[in-house]
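Journal club prep — side note

Before the paper discussion, L.F. wants everyone to see what a predicted structure for a comparable chain looks like in token form. Sequence:
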Amino acid sequence: MRPRRRRLLASMVALAVLAGGVWAAGLIAFAFSLPDAVTDPFTRTEAIVILTGGSQRLDTGLQLLSEDMAERVFVSGVHRDVGIHELLRISAEASDSLACCVEAGHGARDTMGNAAETAAWMRGHGYRSLRLVTASYHMPRSLLELRSALPEATVIPHPVFPPDVKLEQWWRWRGTATLLTREYNKYLAAWARRAWNDRFGSTVPISPVRLSES
């Protein structure tokens, strides 16, 4: 192998090792930055937004509504065939009295879609503050997307903690380590997209939002 090619190969290997080290350091920082408690459980907001992904999120959001922590609940990312009454039957915290104050969005297929339809719903109601309910590992990306789509609103994070996600010593649990690695990569992609949009003024089109009747 010629000396020039050897130097080029060595440089590429060094860059790959450096990039891998930076990525790994970022993953560790990301994992240790995840919330382990609700930092503001008392401030009342105009709305509670639940991102679908487990009954624990729905139970928590509806419990907050029953405690008068907001006027209405919006559940983003609900399957198109699931109506409000079917949705409420999933939750142990549901009651007939809550059905009047719950709406569902059926247009989101991912976290960016959650943010887009939440922004449309919030603006449609004239709301400017919300409590965001999602899993702790999902909270950083959810906040990033929502603050990009709805910068004028005050967002209070309200993480929930799925029992099968072991955040303490997460590297020892294969399922949790895989989940956090995947979530970290998605967070990086969302951050890069937002940085690109901020730099070049691009915008992400918002899909139409279909809401269930309350």
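L.F.'s comment for the group: Residues 135 and 160 are 5 Å apart (CA to CA). Keep this in mind when we get to the figures.
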